[in-house]
Every structure is written in C-alpha cells, then in structure tokens.
Write a structure and sequence with these properties.
single chain, alpha/beta, 8-stranded parallel β-barrel, disordered N terminus, globular, about 425 residues, 3-stranded antiparallel β-sheet
C-alpha cells in the first residue's frame, strides 16, 4: 500500500476525505501508523510533572526548564532510532546517547522517545515482545535496555524523558502469524481489527483497554520517566471505502449510546480517563500528555470548533480531545499544528488561539507540535521554504499566556536543522 502523509504516510484517498491537498500530505495523519500539567496554566509554565518540588523543580530535585522545547524520536520503521535494525547493543547505545547529545546541542529541554511503536516494547516488557525496530525480528532480545538507558542518560544531561506510546497500533500488515510468538494478538486474535491493510487493537473491548493500559503502565512503574506520552492514533484515520469491523463489539457493549460514533468516542474516553487515574495511583510524579491531531472540530460542523476545514479528531478518530482537557484528565496537551501561518484550510494563526481558549482555566499545560520535517521540502507550500516560518510560530505563541513551549518532529530533522529554521525558532 502506498504510504505517504503526516509524518511520512497516508493513503492518497484519505487526503481528499480530510480536505487536505497532496502538497500538504503531512497534515493528514498516518493511516498505518508511524511517525503523531496540571501544576498551573501559567504561561511559560515549567516542563512537566503534575507535582511541584522546591523552587519550581520536581520532587526528586531536578529543576524544570522555563520553556518546553521537545524533540520527538520515532522508532517505528527505524525513522530516527535505531538507524537500522540489527545493530549491536553497543552501536544502538551509541546512537541513542548521540541523539540525547544532539538534543542538548540544539537546546532542547525534553526528548519524546517512542518506546512502544507497534504493540512491542523498547524495554523488557512482560506484556508485549521486544520491538522489531531493534533487531529486525520482533521478540528478539537486543541485549540491552533502551528505555532504561534513555532515562538515565537523558537525566544526566538535564533533559526530560517522555515515554511515547501508541495505544492501539499492532502492525502495518494484516497477518497475525507474522507477529512474534506469544504476542497478545497471537494468543487473542479476537482482540485485533484489520483496517487499511494493518492490524490494530479493538478499542471497543474492555479486555483490550485493560491490556494496553497494563503494558504502558509497566514502563511508568519501572522507570523514572517524566511523562507518558501518546500520539494522535486512536481509531484509525479514515480511508475511503474502508470500514471498521467492530460490529460484534458494538452489539455487546453499545447499548445505551445514541449511535456507534458516540460509543466509539466513549471507548477512547474510557482509555484516557482510566489511564490518567492509574498513573496517579502508580506514580503521581509522572505527567500524562497527549499529542492529538490539531483540529478538534471545524466551525462549519460545530460553532465551538476552530475556523478550519478538513479532518476532525472528534468525528474521524472518535477522539474528543477538548473533553479530555476540560475534564482535567491530562497534565499537558500538545496538538500537532503542522500547518503554516496563513494556510487556508488549517491556519496556524487561527488554531493557536483556539487551543489557548480550550485550555484556559483548566490547569492543563499547552505545548505546540511543530512540523520541522516540512521545512525546505519542495512539495510543501512556499511558507515552508522560508527559514523564518517556525520562528514566527514561536513569537506568535508567546503572545498567548497558556502556551508553554513547542515540540519538533523529529530527530532526523533536528539533526539537519533544514534552512537553519530550528536555530531561528530557538533564538526567537
């Protein structure tokens, strides 16, 4: 299947459905799935952790930065780390510490490391197999603990380590026999759905909801991570001609809901709310953050939506992101505002004030996801050929008291700093 899109992938048919032209494919999302605090709502607000320690630091004594500057590190399909599967443990460790050194050089304050890319793990998880990206074979021990090393080495450099998970994605193929022996979907094939040629956990099953929470909370419990971070993949990005085969689950659990869409949104709400509650029970110092698609709803659909046109997380992904903020289930929200100022369908300058209003008074921190990967790409609009575009984003965002910083996708582009745009943004 052709794979293009938001951080690299989406079937072309989905782009039209989302009202986004091929020249801005990066905005649409990733149908197969790769690479998406409540300590006060004040502006510059520190970086993370729902609990404050002395002098604005964490309870363990580490101080927070005044402005959040994050770098996503994607491991799915070896986008950013490791550079290829099958490197030795020493080579992988050197690459990982090199990325942390890169974050320091680029004046980042946090690294958002993808630790559970496809229902597999970058640590010795009792719930899911070792990640395929490490050795090339899912379930094979790489001979070291990437997450444990990342936490220790990030903190040694004064960086926060946010553990990035995708709750539902299982595989970019539809063949359970290709999963590692003992994989949960091998043992429970009824847990999985096939959609757009890929496998995902069925969000409508309570046993699935419990499993994915257990798998992610294992990392929270065992490691000194600063945050558990999710990206934008809940129910899958819609693809024309495809339907989600959840009839059986809806028949079993959908009674009492107005329609299937309301039931699906409730399934995702339950996952978010229950995870938030369990994090606070397991380790209250760990923040919970989500990086959703940048549009909740369009004003043309809902008068409370943003002045945008195209995809809507509420309607298309069944992700009621504004509701999660209003309920205080999150410590931070990091919408992916992967468009330029003045972009007709989704104008960055219109979305920032919408999100500012959404978080104001909730105690949920607001950070903004930035499309560094678009800078200098000739397929993107002219604004992305201007090295000052991201700096304009930063200066605009600073006029809103709730915005505490930005996160850049992704490490490969942070290293290249295309057109010097990242340096300009950090200096802004």
């Amino acid at each position: 299947m052709p794979r293009i899109g938001r951080r690299g992938f989406v079937a072309g048919a989905a782009l039209a459905a989302w009202g986004i032209g091929a020249g801005d494919a990066g905005a649409a999302g990733d149908a197969l799935g790769r690479a998406g605090e409540r300590a006060g709502a004040g502006a510059a607000g520190g970086v993370l952790g729902p609990a404050s320690g002395p002098a604005g630091g964490r309870p363990d004594g580490r101080r927070r930065a005044k402005e959040f500057r994050g770098m996503w590190v994607a491991t799915i399909t070896n986008r950013d780390f490791p550079s290829r599967p099958g490197l030795t443990a020493a080579e992988q460790r050197a690459e990982l510490t090199g990325l942390l050194d890169l974050a320091v050089r680029r004046r980042m304050t946090a690294v958002v490391l993808q630790i559970r890319p496809s229902a597999d793990a970058l640590w010795p998880s009792p719930y899911e197999p070792w990640a395929e990206c490490l050795t090339g074979t899912q379930g094979t021990d790489p001979g070291w603990d990437p997450l444990g090393t990342a936490v220790t080495e990030a903190h040694a450099r004064g960086l926060e380590l946010h553990a990035w998970c995708n709750p539902y994605r299982v595989a970019s193929h539809s063949d359970p026999s290709r999963l590692a022996p003992g994989h949960p979907v091998r043992r429970h094939p009824e847990w999985a759905l096939v959609y757009a040629g890929g496998l995902l956990y069925n969000p409508g099953l309570p046993e699935v909801r419990r499993h994915v929470q257990d798998a992610m909370l294992d990392a929270v419990r065992r490691y000194d991570i600063d945050a558990l971070h999710w990206d934008d993949y809940f129910y899958p990005y819609p693809v024309a001609g495809q339907s989600i085969a959840d009839d059986d689950a809806y028949a079993r659990y959908g009674a009492g809901f107005a329609d299937r869409a309301a039931w699906r949104r409730n399934n995702v709400d339950l996952l978010v709310r229950e995870t938030a509650t369990r994090i606070k029970e397991v380790k209250p110092s760990v923040a919970f953050g989500i990086s959703p698609f940048g549009v909740w709803r369009n004003a043309g659909t809902d008068p409370e939506g943003s002045d945008t046109r195209g995809g809507q997380s509420y309607d298309d992904l069944y992700a009621d992101t504004r509701h999660w903020v209003r309920e205080g289930w999150l410590d931070y929200v990091m919408p992916q505002l992967y468009w330029n100022i003045g972009y007709d369908a989704c104008d960055y300058a219109k979305l920032v004030p919408w999100w500012d209003a959404a978080v104001r008074g909730t105690g949920v921190r607001l950070y903004l996801g930035e499309a560094l990967y678009k800078v200098g790409d000739p397929a993107q609009p002219a604004a992305w050929q201007d090295p000052a575009e991201l700096a304009r984003h930063v200066r605009l965002a600073r006029t809103y008291a709730t915005v505490g910083g930005h996160c850049y996708f992704a490490a490969r582009e942070v290293a290249k700093d295309p057109l010097g745009a990242l340096t300009s943004a950090v200096d802004a």
